[in-house]
Amino acid sequence: MEAIEELKKKRKKHMRSYNTELSFSARLPGEVQGAYADSICAVMYSCDPFADLRQSILEMIREVGVRDWEEMEELVHCYVVLNSSEIHGFIVDAFLSLCFP
């Protein structure tokens, strides 16, 4: 229960500092190989980056079929590299919310 409350606090903190001009990049990192190498990236503006990232991550897991922790780490890497540092906290929170529902 403590972990969930901590995630909620972090999310509120991120939402207060969120700038609506931020966007997701559409460039897949060159070092990405394996399951995600053929993935298509999309630019997206968001009013709720946590929810949108969480949904995007779920779609990637379903479409690509994450089979092990190494592939999950690769997916985390893709999201971090593709997005500005201002939303890295949302990325972490979204992944954690899926790992610890």
Overview of the structural elements:
The chain is mainly alpha-helical and 101 residues long. The protein has one domain (2-99). It is built from four helices and no strands. It has helices spanning 2-17, 49-65, 69-82, 88-99. Helix 1 (2-17) packs antiparallel against helix 4 and helix 2 packs across helix 4 (88-99). The protein is globular and about 35 Å long. Residues 42-101 form the OVATE domain. This is Transcription repressor.
Give a summary of the structure in a few sentences:
The protein has helices at 2-17, 49-65, 69-82, 88-99. It is mainly α and 101 residues long. It has one domain (2-99).
Features:
Ovate_C; 101 residues; 4 helices; mainly alpha; transcription; globular; 58% helix
